[in-house]
Each structure stands twice: as C-alpha cells, then as structure tokens.
Amino acid sequence: MTNNSQTTPQQTIRFGADRLTIEDVVAISQGATAEMNTESAFTSKIDRGVAFLERLLKEEGVIYGVTTGYGDSCTVAIPTHLVDDLPLNLTRFHGCGLGEDLDRQQARAVLATRLCSLSQGVSGVGHPLLNQIVTLINHDISPRIPQEGSVGASGDLTPLSYLAAALIGEREVIYQGKICPTADVFKELGITPIKLKPKEGLALMNGTSVMTALACIAYKRAEYLAQLATKITAMVSVGIQGNGFHFDEALFAVKPHPGQQQIASWLRSDLQAERPPRNSDRLQDRYSLRCAPHVIGVLQDSLPWLRQMIENELNSANDNPIIDGDNERVLHGGHFYGGHIAMAMDTLKTAVANIADLLDRQMAQLMDYKFNNGLPFNLTGATGERKPINHGFKAVQIGISAWTAEALKHTMPASVFSRSTECHNQDKVSMGTIASRDCLRVLQLTEQVTAASLLAATQAIELRKRDQQLTDTNISPALQAMQQAVLAEFKFVTEDRPLEHDLRLFISRIQQQHWSLY
C-alpha cells in the first residue's frame, strides 16, 4: 500500500496549445504553474480578434456588450465616450455574491478554467489579460469568490466578476492563507492592475468556468471514491465472512458493463486468499455485498462520458458574443449556457450518493450482531466485565446514517429548477453551478461515510484476528497492506473513546487521495 498523498505539483500547464484535461485543472488547483503558448499561430490569432474589434469600434459597429447594454438592456446604445467604462461597471454591479467563499483550491481551478476558455482565441481578449491570469496563478493569488449567485446562464456572471475584479486590482484575494485587499497584494508584489478593454469584462464573466472548475475537482474525488469503496467492500466481505464467489469472472462476463466488470475484478484481486470457514448458512450475501459491483459500477461506468462532457466544456469558448477574427464576424449566441455541466453534476452526485447508501447498508450489517456472523455488537473491542459498558462504533453508525440521508437529500436535480430572470431575457437557465456545488456537498458527506466505514471495516478484521477467526493467510496481500496503512494512524478501539479526531484525519486522507489503491 503506497502513500499517494498529493503534494504541490512541480509542473507547468501550457494554455493555448493542446486541449486541457481534468487532471491539468486539478494540478493547477493544487499548485502547478501556468504559461501561455508563445507560438506565432496562437499569438497572431489573439491579435487578429483584438484588431477586428478595434476596427469595428472605430467604424461604430454595433456589438452586444461593447456598444450596447447587457442582457435585456441590449437595446440601449452606449455613447462612444463611455464604451471604455462599460466593462468596469459590469464587474462592479455584479459584485453581489453571497454564501461561503470558494476555497483556495477551487478558486485556482476557476482561474485555470477561465484562462482555458479565453485561450481558444475567439473571445476578443488581448495578451495582457491572459498574462494577468497567469500572473495570479503563478504568484498563488486566488480571487475571493462567494459561492452563491449564479443561475448558470448567462454563465457564472456574479462569481466570475470577482475574478475580473482581481485582475484590475479591486476587491479581495486569498494570498498566503489570508483574505487581503487585492490592491495591497499587488503593491507588495509589484503587479500592475490591467485596464479592461471594451469586450474583456464580458469575456471574463459570461461563461461556465466556475461550474466547470468545480466539476473537474468533483470528478477526481468521485473517481477515487469508486476505488476506495471497492476496497472497503472487500474488507467488509472478509470481516463478515462473506461469499467471495459473488464476484466471479464468469458471472460478470454475462453482464458486460465494463465499469461494473472492473469493480468485480478489483474485488477478486483483493480477495485472493485462503478464506476462513463461513459461519453462516446463507448461500447468498445480502445485496449490499453481493451487488456492490453493480452499485459502484454505475459510477465507474459513468466516468468516461462524464469526462467527455466536462473536458469539452473546459476546452470551449463559452462566452457571448464569439469574436471570429479570421472571418471578421461577431457571432451572437448562447454558449454561456451550462446545461452539460449541470447534467454531468446532477448525474455524478446521484452516483456518489449511491456509494454512501451502499456503505451505510454494509455498516448496518457489520455492526449488528444478528447479521455479522459472530462479530461483537457494534464492533466493540472490549472484553470481560467491561464489555457491557462499551459501545464501540454504535454512535459512528448513527452518524453514517445521518450523513447518508443528507447526501441522498441533495440528489434532487438542480438542472430542472430553471428560473426566469433578468427581465425574462434569461428565461431558461442551467443551474449548473448549483448542481456542481450540490455535487461537492454530496462528495463531502460520502467521504465522511467512507472514512467511518474504513475504520469500522479495519476494526472488524482486527476483531476476527484477535479471536483467531482470521490469520494472515486468510487476508490477501492487498488487504493486509490496506489494514496496515490504516492501523499506522488508527488505534484499535478497545475502550470507548471519542472518534471525531480519527474521522477527521481519515476524511482528510481520503480527500488527499493518500493511498494508491489499484
């Protein structure tokens, strides 16, 4: 069992060259640096878009959001002498976000996703703006972005206004672990605020980059949870003396979902050991064990198409209007609509919540002496006269039920709760950012369930070993390694003790993806 703790990646992600991946965004979020493509094909494409916009302005062309007001105010003409002030007003009147702030990792991911979109070269922004975002990333300056206030079309206007404000030296940023005035940080580091050109405020704010950033982070956490839930299922099977033949290769060959087959294959690998005699007359284990590949497999099978949807959005130009500098056209449309991310996150949060529900049911079996094939009630490690006053994992199992119930409650799809807003101009919206935030909440709750389940499964195996119902020959090398890794930081529960500290430690280990699992 290797330690796979995430450290600050010493890598540089290049923007404006190849397509970015989810992993690239997550790397930036964890500390990787950024650089712009310097090849002439890229730089000249940026220049052509800017030059085309400048010519249109000189010719008094009508451009939405440049020479007109925004949204339903698109019929309001902006006097020529005020065109340069319009983007500044846009950033300022959208400074009304509420709720808790995105954390540093999430805010860095937003910088990466917005930079990727603008680097498609069809948003009419110039090199100074692109380079300013790179500067923020490389100096580890993250805009302070409140989570709430986006309906997901016209993109993430309000939260992205906080990114735009940071580029021009306004509002606040996260720097060295503190929230500081942007102007103070820029002064300390010698960074010059940029002045937004006429289209640049709209280009920064009118897109799907907050929901996409959160989706990238959610994807990687869910991917790891599928693996860890599989590992825990194998541990529970050993602890409860389950039937390992439920995961037979020939059995799964007749239902060929590849993700489901992968989960069954991992379980077979984890259960490769001489099994102890079964203390049960049940031919078939209950569904939470027997059907674990079918539950976890839904998440595993969803990952490829979720990746496709997230990465297509990531590598898109998703503002409005699109500036086609090559053909000298302004294309008005609705690429700011976050429907694909909304659907991806509504789907992912449902798949993840099912993992919480699966582990909740496994834990209910494991701790109930009526169903756990001879383990002590609530997995208490106490013996003798002290056994009656000790309750082991009783309260932890109650907590697991509470966290699971809350996770399940959050699976109501956000994407169907469209609201007409902004004078009915934004009359059908995606709610993609709310879906992404919901998904992260479901992930947090499921990681809590998973941490508790990992400790409980470890306790169960140790109880079997203590009572000489298991030996090392009954446990595969993979599960022995997992057991040792957990016990290096978790003390077997003999006498009752508060387990909050242990739970928080192992939640952080899960979120750090601390163990290399498969």
TrEMBL record:
Its EC number is 4.3.1.23. It catalyses: L-tyrosine = (E)-4-coumarate + NH4(+). One of its GO terms (biological process) is secondary metabolite biosynthetic process. PROSITE patterns: PAL_HISTIDASE. It is an enzyme of class 4 (lyase). Keywords: Lyase. InterPro entries: Aromatic_Lyase, Fumarase/histidase_N, L-Aspartase-like, Phe/His_NH3-lyase_AS. Coiled coil: none annotated. One of its GO terms (molecular function) is tyrosine ammonia-lyase activity. This is tyrosine ammonia-lyase. It comes from Photobacterium piscicola. The gene is hutH.
